[in-house]
Amino acid sequence: MKIHFAVALLLLASAAAKLTEMLGDSSDLLKSGKYAEAMKLDDTVIREMGEYYVSGDATTQLFSIAIVHKALAYAGLGKEDDALWYWYAAASLYPAIARSDMSAYGAAGKFLAAHPPGPLDVRVPKGAKIVPPSVVKKVEAKYPNQSLNSQVGVPIVIEFLVGRDGRAHTPHVVGDLGAPMVAFATLEAVRQWQFTPATADGQPIDAPFRVTMNYKVIH
Predict the structure, then answer these.
(1) What gap in Å lies between CA 76 and CA 74, rounded to an integer?
(2) How is residue 136 annotated by DSSP?
(3) Rounded to the nearest 5°, which phi and psi values hold at 212?
(4) What is d(CA 77, CA 14) in angstroms, rounded to the nearest whole number?
(5) What pLDDT, on the 0 to 100 scale, is given for residue 6?
(6) What confidence tens digit (pLDDT) does each residue in 5-46 have?
(7) d(CA 179, CA 170)
(8) Sign of the torsion angle spanned by Cα atoms 144, 149, 153, 158
(9) Is the Cα torsion angle 64, 70, 74, 77 positive or negative in sign?
(10) Cβ–Cβ under 8 Å, residues 160 and 197
(11) Which residues of 187-219 are buried (b: 16+ CB within 10 A; e: fewer)?
(12) Domains plus CATH for the chain?
């Protein structure tokens, strides 16, 4: 049993080294403006970590770096809304990452740095009749099995802004994070939801929204 455990640790360390190397390659691609190629690497890292890693500060940091790289790739491709979603998602999972120096990533890095994650800023006209946003389309989260095993019974609570476009923006995970991959799977689902936006005296406005989602076993 001890031998098997030692072998498992060696395999885990080897996998972590491989993923770290892939993120290094992704960083180089981002700096050279090869955003689509970088995103493919980032998606691979995110997928593999979701299957085999659970929690811990080092794991969360590595996972969040992959998400930030994805945000940089989207920014470089001119998809600013997607870039900000992943930027806020990464900062929600690992807040310290929002203080990272992005200057090496050119215009994409400057874009993220110019939009630091923070509390929801919602301004509602005084005395207006407010109708809150409502969900019109839900997408179920697909949770990674290994991460799910450590998250049983722990709901994921997410706050975000429902924009006038009927989409979710600026996400933030509330309370106990648990396994970061499970929280990220939830964020990925919510990102695809569609809403009827809130209104103030019949006019669409941005409004805060909170959802609580429980785990779901995938066979």
Answers:
(1) 5
(2) E
(3) -120, 125
(4) 32
(5) 39
(6) 333 333 445 667 888 999 999 999 999 999 999 999 999 999
(7) 20
(8) negative
(9) positive
(10) no
(11) bbbbbebebebbbbeeebbbbbbebebebeeee
(12) 2-113 (1.25.40.10), 130-213 (3.30.2420.10)
Please report which helix (H) or strand (E) contains residue 24, including its range.
helix 2-31
CA neighbor of 90 nearest in space, from 72, 110, 114:
72
Contacts of 1 (CB under 8 A, 6+ apart): none
Torsions phi, psi for 78 (to 5 deg): 85, 10
Residue recorded with tokens 């098997």: 4
Please give the Cα distance from 45 to 50 (Å, whole number): 8
> For residue range 106-149, what is the model confidence (pLDDT) as tens digits?
999 999 999 999 887 777 778 889 999 999 999 988 876 665 55
- Take residue 195 and report the two structure tokens written for it: 């809403």
Rounded CA separation 80/25 (Å): 23
Give the pairing of strands 130-131 and 156-162.
unpaired
